[in-house]
Fold this sequence. Notes:
The complex is a heterodimer. Chain A is an alpha/beta fold. Chain A is built from 6 helices and 5 strands; from the N terminus they run E-H-E-H-E-H-E-H-E-H-H. Chain A has helices at 14-26, 38-48, 65-72, 89-96, 110-122, 125-128, and strands at residues 7-10, 31-35, 52-56, 80-84, 102-105. In chain A, strands 2-1-3-4-5 form a 5-stranded parallel β-sheet, with helices on both faces. In chain A, helix 2 packs parallel to helix 3. The longest helix of chain A has 13 residues, at 14-26. The radius of gyration of chain A is 13 Å and the shape is globular. By secondary structure, chain B is α+β, with helices and mostly antiparallel strands. Chain B has 15 helices and 23 strands. In chain B, the strands form 6 sheets. Chain B has a 5-stranded antiparallel β-sheet, sandwiched between helices. Chain B has a 5-stranded antiparallel β-sheet with strand order 13-12-16-15-14, sandwiched between helices. In chain B, helix 1 runs antiparallel to helix 6 (252-296), helix 12 runs antiparallel to helix 14 and helix 14 (557-576) packs antiparallel against helix 15 (615-632). The longest helix of chain B is centred in the N-terminal third of the chain and has 65 residues, at 14-78. The A-B interface holds A 12-20, 22-23, 26, 34, 36, 57-64, 66, 84-86, 88, 91, 105-108, 110 and B 462, 465-470, 472-474, 476-478, 480-481, 484, 558, 562, 565, 624, 627-628, 631-632, 657-663.
Amino acid sequence: MNPRKEVLIVEDESLIAMAIEFKLKQAGWPVCGRATSGEEAVEKVRACLPGLLLMDIRLAGDLDGLETIRVIREFSTVPVVFMTGYQDPTTKRRALELNPLAFLEKPLKLMDLEPILTGLLNAGSLDSAGAR
Amino acid sequence: MSILSRGPSRCLPLRSFLTRLGLLAALPVLCAYMTASYAYLKRSRESYLSNAETHALNLAKAVDRRLDYILDGLTMLAASPYLDAPEDLAAFHSVAARFRSVYGIHVILADLDSNMLLNTRTPYGTALPRLPVPRGHAAVPEVLRTGRPSIGDSFMGPVAGESLIAAVVPVTRADSVHRLLLGTPELRLFQGLLDAIPFPEAWIAVLLDGKGDEMARLGQAGLSEESVRNLGYEFSERVGSSNWELKLYAPRSELIGGLLREGAGWLVALLLSLGATSLIGIVYGRRMISTAEALILGRGIDAEAAPILEIRQVAEKLRAIEDQRDQSLRLLELFIENMPAAVAMFDRDMRYISCSRRFLADYRLGNRDIRGLSHYEVFPDIPEGWKEIHRRCLEGAVERCERDPFPRSDGSTDWVRWELRPWNGSDGAVGGLVLFSEVITGTVESERRIERSLEEKELLLQELLHRTNNNMQGIQALMLLYSQVDPGADLPGFVNLMTGRIAAMATVYRLLIDSSDLSRVDFGEYLESVGRAAAERVPGKTSCALDLDIESIPVLFDVVVAVALAVLELFDLVLLNPAPDGEGPTLRVRLRREGTDSIALTVSGFGGSSSQISEHRKVLALELADQIVREQIKGTLERSDVFGVTGWTIRFNDKQYTQRVSR
């Protein structure tokens, strides 16, 4: 069994971030932190070197989730799973250009989050996705 | 080149044409004048020569008649009986003397041997010499030979001592010449004869004997023979039966001078008549040219003043046409001027012919009279692209544009819809352009506002969908957290809790729809609404009063939703465990703006520990409220107890919280 990667949750809705963190920790996934903005996410990726990013596309602040990934890609190949409440075709196309592991639409079943990540882990995606 | 020759490059001014036409018309008159002049010259010369010839003939005749007269007298005298006997010669001398007095000539009687028998120049009996023999023609021998009278050439008289001529008649008796009778007139006789005949001063007439000696002369004296011969015309007439000759010289200069004098008169008359004709022609020609120019150049003329009937008629017709045209133009100008659209009419040089008042208003030209001005003078900054469009349309193209920016001199930009098309003159050629235009800036701006509004609406819908999904996610998260943290909570209480959260979410959307600003809602109104709903929702609701002290503060939608989640946790804490006071348990809510950016929200009335709320739930509620305030809206949550009643104050800066990025 592959060792579980540390997850960084990037979500500007604190309640949702707290619930995701709670659920992941409950399933045994280490969470290295939460970030509510793109700028904060970039700092925390540099600081804690997560193995996976759970990234909301719509974020408060100057950077949205997509722009944040572009910045992170300059120094890290950390794999990313996008979350969003709504995406128009253009946004979705832009997101797919960044080669995410998965694209999750809200409201997502928090119960299903852990099995999805585990499936990605077992498929080896978490090892290679960032290098693509 | 003839003025009638045709060619594409041949083009004469009207004045030159009419001048040449006048000269051409005068040419036959000049030819006729030249022909007449030639005929007159010829006739004058012939007349002059004929006159001279007649003069010569008359002079010769006069001399001849005088000789005949002398010979006749001598012939009569020769019949005198005193010549029959020698003794009667003395008597004959007397008869001859009377003859002399009548005829003015002396008489000589000679015998057949040329011995002079008597001479009236000397008394009878005087010894007389023989008859002299003249150089040239001698009459005596001829009379002796022919027996007929004869005239001899001049000779020097031995008795008279002067030049004489001899007119000799025979004295015939019994059919034979018996003696000779001579009349010897002096040459003066002939000079006097010629002098008595009227004779032009410039002419010269010379009476010559047979040997060419001059016997008498008329006219200028002192001229050498060569000068006389070179004088001009020469006429010669033989004088009767003699071998005399009369020569007449008529000077050519006199003929020419006369002709010149007379011709000069005619020439002056011709010039005067031509001058008078030209003057009249010029006066009338100029009037006609001025009239024609006015007609051709379309200046119009006074029909009453037109000098020629046809021109007057044409002028009247033109005036009628011009009046009709002017009326049509006035109607057209009136029509264009009052058109409710922006219309301008140009000539080929893009000069305004007319324009509507709407055009002046739309293009901010006030009440300027721009007729006759160039479009490029009125709008000096017009782009080159427009000029190119004008050129194309002047070649017949029709162009239009539904939406075109029109930069103003003040830096603003209007939008115009326009159509530019040529108009044709009566000859079918393009006479200019007509511009139909409409300033549609208002329409364009409205369309843009609508487009922006639709875009905003679409964004709003996207945002609402996002928010709804997020909120559902939030409710789900809340349920998850509460169910995990407080697994012993009763189900009705849990359902009540979640219902309150969902109602609060619904309320914010209702307020958002009613808001004039689709990004903000009135936070005070929202708090009052969710506060009353929360108070009504709790069990035993009448046990807790509601005290609201709230300002109306518009706050960003996202902030409201986040703060609401935190505040609802605090409301639940208070409502489930209110602090008793004098007036009964009360949920107090205060909302104030502090300074320009900070907003303070105080919720108080919490009464401490209670059986209605577990410690886990209390901790979770405060932790949720704290994390939402701290992480999501970057604010602070502080406890604020007053007189033993627990409360909390949330402070946040709504200006720091930017709207969620929407992409």
